[in-house]
Amino acid sequence: MNREQFRAAAHAAIDEIIDYFDNLPSQRVLPTVEPGYLRPQIPENPPEEGEAWIDIQADIESKIKPGLTHWQSPNFMAFFPATVSYPSILGEMYSAAFTAPAFNWLCSPACTELETIVMDWMCKALALPACFLSTSENRGGGVIQVSASDSVATMMVAARERHVHEQVKAEGLEEGTAAYEDRSMELRPALVALGSDQAHSSTAKAALIAGTRYRSVPTRLEDNLEMTGSALRSVLEQCERDGLTPYYITLTMGTTNTCALDRYAEIKAVLKEKPSWQRIWVHIDAAYAGSALVAPEWQYIAQEFAEGIDSFNMNMHKWLLVNFDASCLFVRNRLDLTNALDITPAYLRNTYSDTGKVIDYRNWQISLGRRFRALKIWFVMRSYGLQGMRAHIRKTIELGNLFADLVRSRPDMFEILTKPAFGLTVLRIKSPKASQSAPSSGIQPDAASDALTKSVSGLINQRGEIFITPTVIAGVSAIRVVSGNAQVEEPYMRRAFDILVKTTEEILGENK
Ligand code: PLP
């Protein structure tokens, strides 16, 4: 493809992308294809001769679009959203054009320096503690990771290394000796990472990657599925009895199932109770709900967890208008990261890195090469401004509240299971028997309600007019509906509620 062909193809692609967005509201959210639909439509072998762009582009419409789940549709209310915006797409285009696996500062200074600047902007935008700024005296800073899972795994490896090295040095062993290495390895089997039973599975997976144990802290529906200080204390004490050493904990701001907030103040008080607990690395996973911190009315949450945490991550690629991948990870002391991950063979050395004055982000992540992701964040922050970002967050939370109010308006049919939060409503369908009996305190397991809830969510998703998530909350079948999508407007939330009511009536009618 030459430059003129590229110009024409790029214009045509952009026209098609704009049309795609325009037509989304009238499309089914979920595709109707069956597994394996694509292979018969694509030649068995790659083409020997290059093909014309016009033929390649035609296949987007005929072969790719039929197999897409439309995450950008205003009728997509499942999981958490994966937002995108036009400025973000432009960022991706420039990033592709300037392609460089910018692992060291020298590999593309603008890539590294813009990343440091936009992470400082984000730290301020989210009202995170100043210890996470790149300019902080404690040598904090932010780095863009691919995903929250990468952020958590990276932090856990850093936490493990910090813990082990502190211990081995305290025992008087000299770094670089065989005795030092042997002792470091001896300590590992007792190490245990913690998270609540509602923490995202990436925390358990990170423990697998870090090669340590994992224990979860139980939560209760009565506590809105938040991790409490007392539940954590019990687990810490049990670890002690089992001869295990907790070294890392994930606290969640906005759990995946229900958007619960762990009880930071209580937890931090518990962690202060014993010197060994004070050494535990505290990470806040705010993958989805962290975006709400751009709005001052939610920033009290950042103040609650501010002091005494080691790291924090949130995904702009969920709710904050930057497309995947854009997970913002902040660390209090970058040396914890670089001490764990800096391995520098001769071919990666250069005079700038040797001065120690530049950041080489390869030492802040697992992989070596990295994309120019700061551009899309910069474009989005400048195009929307903080006001535009706050307006998006406020609008989508209000729409979630509207949906929750609609659900509450039918107490005969629906029951909300946990506090609606950050645009997420978690509900179940009441069985006719339960709706006739006197209201009981707390959510009771109910097999008939479970069956109904599963049937309703199954039928709704099968029809594909809207997409919602079936789940299980504390042993109870539930439906999650999220309004965080960038395209969502009030009529879509009202329509989603109407679909929920009609489908429930239909299933109840069939069961009579
Ligand atoms: N943490 C939380 C609280 C989440 O809800 C999710 C995904 O929904 C993740 C982590 C994983 O996110 P990612 O896909 O960026 O790894």
Q: Indicate the overall shape.
A: globular
User: Stretches where pLDDT falls below 50 for ≥5 residues?
Assistant: none
The Cα radius of gyration reads 25 Å
* Biggest sheet descriptor: 7 strands, mixed
Q: How many domains, in number, for the residues?
A: 3
Q: Quick one: CATH class of the largest domain?
A: Alpha Beta
Task: Give the count of helical stretches.
Answer: 18
Strand fraction equals 5-15%
> Going across the major beta sheet, what is the strand order?
1-7-6-5-4-2-3
- Total strand count, please? 11
Distance between the amino and carboxyl termini: 63 Å
Give the rounded overall mean pLDDT. Answer: 96
Can you list the ligands bound to this structure? pyridoxal-5'-phosphate
CATH topology-level fold name of the largest domain = Aspartate Aminotransferase, domain 2
CATH homologous superfamily placement of the largest domain: Type I PLP-dependent aspartate aminotransferase-like (Major domain)
Helix content: 40-55%
Helix and strand content put the structural class at: alpha/beta
- The ordered string of helix (H) and strand (E) elements is HHHHEHHEHEHEHHEHEHEHHHEEHHEEH
Q: What is the annotated CATH architecture of the largest domain?
A: 3-Layer(aba) Sandwich
Family: Belongs to the group II decarboxylase family.
GO biological process, one term: amino acid metabolic process
Keywords: Decarboxylase, Lyase, Pyridoxal phosphate
Protein name: Aromatic-L-amino-acid decarboxylase
